[in-house]
Amino acid sequence: MDPEATPTDERKLSLTDRAYALIRKDIVICVLEPGMFFTEAELSERLKMSKTPIREALLRLQVERMVSAIPRRGYEVTPLHVADIQDVFEHRRIIEGACAELAAIRIEPGDIEELRTYADMTAAHYDAIDGSDREAVSRHAHLNNVFHETIARTARNHRLHRTAVQAIRDYDRFFFLEWNAPAAYAPDYVDHHEILMHIVNRDPESAKLAMYKHVDFSRKSLLTGLAATGNASLLNRVRL
């Protein structure tokens, strides 16, 4: 995976792929907010594309349960529920813990520098990020995914990797909300380096526990942020 590529990198993308990436990003960073209704015509005008790639992209997003087709109204961005938070983080904890454990057993010399590069890039980007810049937050989310998906690939189990990628991307919609809970949020790249240290040291149990800690902290940050005074705008995006 190219860490310099972004979810909306236009190089070598078909119109449908480009439409999919742009619409998905708008959902993730809440330009299209949970529960919002929209039409193909509105997206076509805003993205300067014909309706055909828009329609094909929306079919893919329906499969991912990010949007739903609503008769005579167009589409609805799938609402977020508090129960979704529990489901997503429980899934990530189990799957990514197993990935970290296997990565510590199966890591090869070439993997170490790759993982270290991604961990360092995440750290550097966090230091420079402006949290009010949605594009910057989207970029940070992408770098975060690159690190986690590389650990999953290092586990060298194709089925586990495929499941992990889906679990990681299911979290995308919560990343922006977590980032906008400043009272609860702290730099997750500290955990990235801790996870990496245990993987490089070939300590599978410690790597698994570090990943558990990382995922648990992220869940706690999001839930605390949603409950915090002054974060009503976040609560409005998540249903009980």
TrEMBL record:
| GO-annotated molecular function | DNA binding; DNA-binding transcription factor activity
Pfam families assigned to the protein according to its UniProt record, in alphabetical order: FCD, GntR
Bilayer-crossing residues are none
Q: Which CDD domains match?
A: WHTH_GntR
Which InterPro entries does the record associate with it? GntR_C, TF_FadR/GntR_C, Tscrpt_reg_HTH_GntR, WH-like_DNA-bd_sf, WH_DNA-bd_sf
Transcription regulation found in the keyword field: yes
Outline the extent of the HTH gntR-type domain. Answer: 13-80
What are the entry keywords? DNA-binding, Transcription, Transcription regulation
Q: Which Gene3D superfamilies match?
A: GntR ligand-binding domain-like, Winged helix-like DNA-binding domain superfamily/Winged helix DNA-binding domain
Q: What is the name of this protein?
A: GntR family transcriptional regulator
What organism does the record attribute this protein to? Celeribacter indicus
